[in-house]
Amino acid sequence: MERITAAAESELWFTERMAGTGFQYSLQVAEVLHAEVTPFQRLEVFRTTGFGTAMVLDGFVNVSDKDEFFYHEVMAHPALFIHARPRRVLIIGGGDCGVLREVLRHGDIDHVDMVEIDERVVRVAERFFPALTASNGDPRAAIRFEDGVAWVRDAADASYDVIIVDSTDPVGPAEGLFGATFYADCHRILTDGGLVVVQSESPLFHQGRLAEIHRCLRGAGFADSHPMTYPTVIYGGGTWSSSIARKGRRLGDGVRWDDIDNRPFTTRYYDRGIHTGLMSLPGYLAPVLSGL
Amino acid sequence: MERITAAAESELWFTERMAGTGFQYSLQVAEVLHAEVTPFQRLEVFRTTGFGTAMVLDGFVNVSDKDEFFYHEVMAHPALFIHARPRRVLIIGGGDCGVLREVLRHGDIDHVDMVEIDERVVRVAERFFPALTASNGDPRAAIRFEDGVAWVRDAADASYDVIIVDSTDPVGPAEGLFGATFYADCHRILTDGGLVVVQSESPLFHQGRLAEIHRCLRGAGFADSHPMTYPTVIYGGGTWSSSIARKGRRLGDGVRWDDIDNRPFTTRYYDRGIHTGLMSLPGYLAPVLSGL
After folding, report:
1. Could you tell me the residue ranges of all domains in chain A?
2. In CATH, what number does A13-64 get?
3. Is B166 a catalytic residue?
4. How many CB atoms lie within 10 A of CB B10?
5. A68-289 belongs to which CATH class?
6. EC no. (chains A, B) (predicted)?
7. Does residue A176 surpass a pLDDT of 60?
């Protein structure tokens, strides 16, 4: 008879399955740091063995220490370096505060409204993600716990230079952030030459949804729009997209290339070459913009 | 008592774990199409539900229909458009034949030697991956089933313009393809201005290994080298790298931008903007080239 000579160490893995893709991925969890049900969603925080701390919303990983910089830099910097002089920025969602941190690196910014529906996401991020939330006390930032759809509906015409929609996927609390009415309001409250950036799902698995986002953006009056793709681990499928659109001008007009090269802050992903790549449309994404 | 009213459909998932990363991913398998043990490795072919046909070598996914184009295009086109007039190309490994297909799209190419150690990989690819192996009958291509390390050691000085090392990871049959001696031979058998491209692992998880590859490349005499990162699903971790190095010239010298724009074949990923992005060094990769 065999004797068990040492207790096997148990392994805990969190698995995220992307519906309809035949793909799932797992992160090894060292410790469950936090779990609660907020008024809006289930919120968990894990200490993982390979990705640092990770936040999970309704079963989908929202952010991890390891790869957050790809997403947050792409959501913030291309738009802010295309705009001639961005002063006022609106962030919808963005509860982990990583986009807010990147936006505030730009010295020209006078004011940022961040409108997150779920205060608990911000409070939990402040506790477990100090690097992401380091700028939350910046006097230029106003963090408001309100409905982003209503905020945009009620905002004055031409009141923002850049809008960043850092939302979860278009099911659950973020559903209203993917519609034509919302984009039309974004267009209305932007100044001329202003830009909107939206999280727009997987370019490999959700091309139909991505195409629909661009149809809606152009339908809402935006003069130009483009999908930007970048690496992600935690959003599944290896590559993810954000889409950028501009009011009244082309995305390539007046890009501040010298300011990109001479930016007075450090980036881990974004630079001139990456900007160029982000604004390129690879052949496999051509259907997304065809017929617009 | 409950009655079972329908048989639950069983689900088959193939899981690949990246050692030491706390990350694993899974593809849903609809059918095992083929399985054998070759003289060199275990070889399986799956029909997956989300990625088409996938080939697995020693438990690691080597290629899938869904995302093969990212890898194969990056392995072939940047080097072939940097070189002023590439005539003779050597592919080491490359058994799925996708790199060969991309190389042969270039009309200037006179001759390609593809040296794959495991004939079974090519034969199985010819059976299950018709799109990848469509160019195998091209009269410019010589497919040889030999040891790539010996081939490079025995090749004449200055006998190739471009060498592409499309290998598996540096364990098992490909181990000899990641060393200083091999790179020195590559340098010797390249013409002046010639380029080598090597599969160089994950930029997020294997940065030490990637840095070592660049130390070896520069140590072997290459005048310039650069890591190129691109999306992958099946290589795990969302982003992967290939590294490119050049004999006697900088990688940016004489890039044939007009030929990139006017290429007489279709690409799904590579173009001018992607080339620019691939040749950019994001901040998080700076340690890979520091001190070289």
Report:
1. 13-64, 68-289
2. 2.30.140.10
3. yes
4. 5
5. alpha beta
6. 2.5.1.16
7. yes
